[in-house]
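dumping this here so i dont lose it
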């Protein structure tokens, strides 16, 4: 069952919704972080001094004087010393000066001062910073850092977990549905045929499969009733046709009688084909009893030989050997072969020569020596009621449909080709049984 590319798969829909939830969560989390730090100016000042001290520490000492002030900052000063700077307000413990930050509101804005010690032990540097905040843009790097620490970093493992969840858990949950689709692709259009395996979980897929199987049961029941009706109608028509044939034999003048008799032959053939088709469509799956396909072919050839001779034709039988047994219905297979022989007799041209070949293996082919099949018609010859527009032969176009139906019920294949040296070849092939 091919669904094409008409829409996203269920897997993609679930993954997409999980990704959308993750994005919404990230935006919400970023909003909370931004709101929290926008109202926590002391914390922003601490982070801003940390970032700028790291920036100064990474700059060569001879270039620090030319280091540009950050965006949104004025009155920028930065100094680097190898010993603790002497500053009022610094907290000292022995010879070690602790890092500190001071935030003071002035007439020109918020002045932030701070000291940081970066580097290892005695080789480290003391960095002193002082600047005035002129706009909120100054806090941008600090806010971005906090978003990275509190939004981006936590989201990475969450994304990994979501990817693993989607790739394993969701796919595993969808396995019963995928299995049902694969089984649906193998279903055959046969009454009482295969049904989908009902999974134990999830409950929704189980309900879907049960509903699908129930629909197949109802379709089988409806088709069965239709086939029974067709068979009953065809059977009931036989008696009035037989009575009508007797009455037509007494019709005068002879020309009208012959025309009516010809019409009755066509009507009888149609009724018989309707009955054969109904029987073919109501076939049960073949049992394990073996049918010798070669023996069936010999029997049908022997039965049809007198009729073919009456029409100045000739039929030849070839047995190619091999194991020609299969599980099936001998009478139905005989009807299929009879229809192929009748079709060859009607469309085989003036030669009237028909070759029936059994084997090698469970295969039967019927060849005529006529003009063959137009390549454009090969895909249509087995369609129900299809007849070539230019054909002069009478019929309803059911013979080859009966063949295909019978072969399909036996899990076989029937194909039409043209022989290299002329004539049409119809081949029925089956699995060995």
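and the seq i came up w/
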């Amino acid at each position: 069952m091919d669904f094409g590319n008409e829409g996203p798969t269920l897997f993609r829909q679930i993954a997409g919704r999980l990704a959308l939830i993750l994005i919404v969560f990230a935006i919400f989390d970023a909003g909370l972080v931004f709101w929290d730090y926008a109202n926590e100016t002391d914390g922003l000042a601490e982070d801003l001094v940390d970032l700028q001290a790291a920036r100064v520490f990474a700059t060569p000492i001879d270039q620090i004087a030319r280091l540009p002030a950050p965006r949104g900052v004025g009155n920028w000063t930065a100094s680097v010393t190898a010993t603790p700077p002497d500053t009022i307000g610094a907290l000292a413990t022995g010879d070690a000066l602790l890092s500190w930050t001071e935030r003071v509101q002035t007439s020109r804005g918020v002045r932030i001062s701070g000291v940081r010690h970066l580097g290892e032990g005695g080789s480290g540097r003391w960095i002193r910073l002082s600047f005035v905040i002129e706009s909120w843009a100054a806090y941008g790097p600090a806010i971005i850092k906090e978003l990275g620490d509190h939004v981006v970093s936590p989201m990475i493992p969450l994304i990994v977990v979501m990817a693993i969840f989607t790739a394993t858990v969701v796919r595993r949950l969808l396995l019963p549905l995928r299995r049902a689709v694969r089984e649906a692709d193998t279903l055959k259009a046969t009454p009482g045929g295969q049904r989908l395996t009902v999974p134990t979980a999830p409950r929704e897929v189980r309900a879907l499969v049960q509903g699908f199987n129930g629909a197949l049961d109802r379709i089988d029941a409806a088709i069965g009733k239709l086939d029974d009706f067709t068979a009953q109608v065809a059977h009931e028509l036989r008696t009035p046709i037989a009575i009508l044939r007797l009455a037509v034999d007494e019709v005068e003048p002879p020309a009208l009688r012959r025309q009516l008799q010809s019409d009755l032959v066509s009507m009888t053939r149609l009724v018989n084909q309707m009955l054969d088709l109904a029987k073919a469509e109501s076939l049960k799956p073949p049992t394990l009893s073996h049918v010798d396909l070669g023996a069936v072919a010999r029997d049908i050839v022997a039965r049809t030989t007198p009729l073919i001779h009456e029409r100045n034709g000739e039929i030849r039988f070839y047995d190619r050997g091999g194991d020609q047994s299969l599980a099936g219905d001998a009478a139905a297979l005989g009807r299929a072969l009879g229809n192929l022989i009748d079709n060859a007799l009607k469309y085989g041209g003036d030669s009237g020569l028909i070759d029936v070949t059994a084997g090698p293996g469970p295969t039967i082919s019927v060849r005529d020596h006529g003009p063959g099949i137009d390549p454009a018609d090969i895909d249509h010859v087995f369609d129900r009621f299809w007849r070539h527009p230019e054909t002069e032969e009478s019929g309803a176009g059911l013979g080859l449909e009966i063949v295909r139906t019978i072969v399909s019920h036996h899990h076989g294949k029937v194909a039409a080709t043209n022989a290299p040296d002329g004539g049409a070849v119809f081949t029925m092939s089956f699995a060995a049984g």
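The mean pLDDT is 79.
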